[in-house]
Each structure stands twice: as C-alpha cells, then as structure tokens.
Amino acid sequence: MKTILVIEDKQEVRENIAEMLQMARYHVVQATDGRQGVEFARSARPDLILCDILMPGLDGYGVLHILTKDPATARIPFIFLTAKVDPAHIRNGMNLGADDYLTKPIDDIDLLAAVELRLKKAEQTGQDVDQPGLADFLDAFRHSDGIPYSSLRYTKKQVLFTEGDAPINLFYIRSGQVKHFKTDVSGNAFITALSGEGDFVGLSGLILSTPHGESAEVLLDAEICTLPKAEFLAFVANHLDIGAYFMRLLATELNQRDERLLKLAYQPVRKRVAEALLLVHRTFYSVADESKRMPTKLPPNEPSSGKRSLSMTLSRENWSQLVGASSETVIRVLSDLRAEGMLELSGSQITLLDIDRLTRLKH
C-alpha cells in the first residue's frame, strides 16, 4: 500500500483529502503545518507528498526547499495545493522542484488522477526515494569518510571565488552562510542567491566547464568543505544516481536565478523586499536546528495566532544588493512594512511577525 503525506493547516480540508485517498486504498499520514510535515516526511518516508502553500510558520515553499536538500526525501514526488491560479505562482513552485499543482477546492477525480499519475511516473523512471549512493556521498562529505576533501573555517567577507574565475573546487557548507552576487561595470552588486548549511556552491561552473558567472562571498562565519574539481567529476562519472542528483540541483539553481532576475526587472520594490525577506527566511531557517540558524522570539504582546516571528540580521548593503534597490529605498519599504505590523526593526535586526501576509504580498 502506497503512503501519502498530506500537509495542510486547515483541518476540514486536510481531513477531506485524507478521506478521499483512504477510500482509494492509500495509507495517509496527516501533518497540520510545515514543520510537522518535514518531520513526518523524514520519519514516514511517504511515496508522495501533497502540501498546501500558505501555512503559518514554515510555508509550502519552505517545506519543499528543505526536503529537496535532504537526500532521503529529495526525490519524493511533491504536489502543491493552492487556492491561487497564477502562472508566476505556479512557475515559482515548479522551479523549486514541485511535480504538480492542484487548485482548491479539490475535485476528488482530479486529486486521484494526479496522485496516480505521479506515482506511476515515479515507478517508470525508477524514482526510488531511497538513494543509498547519494546518502553515502553526502555522509562522507559531512564526516570525512572516503572523499578526498579539506574542511576549513572561513570568516565573514572571505571570497570563495570571483566572477570570471576558472572553477577548480566544489564547496559544501557545513555551517554558516554564503552570498552569490554579480557586479556590473559601475561596480554595483546584485545578490543572485543565498546558500546555507547543506548547500553546494560553485556547481554550475564545474558541471558546465565554464568560468564562474558570479562571485561567492562568506556572509556569516562558516565551515566549508572543498572538493577538487577532478575528484568530483570522476566521482560523478562513476555514480550515475549522484550525477543525476547534481544535474537536477543545477537545473533548479539556474531556474531560481532566472526567476530572481525576472522579478528584479518587472516587480515593484515593495514586492521585491517581501521576496527578499522570505528568501532569507527559507534559506537560513532550519526546522531541524532552528536555534543555531535564526533565533526565535515572540514579542510579549504577540497573541497565540499561528504567527511565527523570526529574527535575522543582514547589513543595509546586503539588503540593498538582495532587493536590487538603493539602501534608502529598501529602508523606506521596511519602515512601511513595520507600520503595517508585518515586521519589527531594531538596528540591523529584522523580526518577521506575519509571514503569511508577507507571502501574500510578494504574489
């Protein structure tokens, strides 16, 4: 019997979906929010995941981001549930690695057809969610077992590589934060991506055999493993499952960068600020170890309403580079969001008070 994980914060919707699936003889595991969903995905190892997008605390995008970084859950078919039918909304989820979308209210025939189709495709392509080769590779990377690499401490503002450099290493972040950025002829920088614990850095240059198309700089003191190019390519060539994993990782990485550049060109600054806040939240907030990534505090007058506040610190320069606007403009928009009750500001620290409203704002 196939196991399906349903992650949905609204009880009536969740139970209706579970009932339809159980009538079709699927075993159903129910999670009431994103954090619980990640925990159940890791423990139950379902054959497929159905996940709502707008949830308090950790939203559906955050769930997918975390699960795709974990080799034990990276290949589980993933279907988003959403009440919004918006091409940009759907493209964002697909770029993150979602397999399909179902719109609410969900028709029972559409639901069962989508589930059956995704399960069949997984079987036909050999999409086994258990990846011992990849798990062994990452475990070796974490614990110095059998992979010839060095592990070094990096301090804030140290550069891993510069745009135009020839790629010579693959980097794996054990702890800390790294920013990726491009610089124009006038010296203005734009942050194209952020990487945190468990992420690989410098992948595109190695696989495509081209100079780095961006620079990478340590944002917060980090421990980073370095694997030489020749050893990495040889390892990938001899392990097809690992090679396929890195190709998917590269495709997702390139799609996400294209999406950010598109938003920079067409979205108003207010939406770009909301997107930047949520990007930092998704990248540096860990369900498994939240105390080390982003301290959580609830203001004394904060009601118990399902909202979650997350404190994060970046310099004005980095926020400006992340949004693609002047520091003054970004500060003005942040002040507006504070006045509307979505966040708190204290020096360089920003505390998100209402992630649901920020998520709706960016769309």
What does this structure look like?
The protein has 363 residues and is an alpha/beta fold. It folds into 3 domains: 3-124, Rossmann fold (3-Layer(aba) Sandwich), CATH 3.40.50.2300; 132-257, Jelly Rolls, CATH 2.60.120; 267-362, Arc Repressor Mutant, subunit A, CATH 1.10.10.10. It contains 14 helices and 14 strands. The protein has helices at residues 11-23, 34-44, 60-69, 87-96, 108-124, 132-143, 203-208, 229-238, 240-266, 269-284, 290-293, 316-323, 327-339, 355-362, and strands at 3-7, 27-31, 48-52, 78-82, 100-103, 150-154, 159-161, 169-183, 189-195, 200-201, 215-228, 310-313, 343-346, 349-352. The strands form 3 sheets. Strands 6, 7, 8, 9, 10 and 11 form a 6-stranded antiparallel β-sheet that branches. The chain has a 5-stranded parallel β-sheet with strand order 2-1-3-4-5, sandwiched between helices. The model is unreliable at 127-132 and 286-309 (pLDDT under 50).
What are the main properties of this structure?
single chain; 363 residues; alpha/beta; Rossmann fold; Jelly Rolls; Arc Repressor Mutant, subunit A; 6-stranded antiparallel β-sheet; 5-stranded parallel β-sheet; 45% helix; globular; two-component regulatory system
List the SSEs and their pairings.
Blueprint: E1 3-7, H1 11-23, E2 27-31, H2 34-44, E3 48-52, H3 60-69, E4 78-82, H4 87-96, E5 100-103, H5 108-124, H6 132-143, E6 150-154, E7 159-161, E8 169-183, E9 189-195, E10 200-201, H7 203-208, E11 215-228, H8 229-238, H9 240-266, H10 269-284, H11 290-293, E12 310-313, H12 316-323, H13 327-339, E13 343-346, E14 349-352, H14 355-362
Parallel strand pairs: 1-2, 1-3, 3-4, 4-5
Antiparallel strand pairs: 6-11, 7-11, 8-9, 8-10, 8-11, 12-14, 13-14
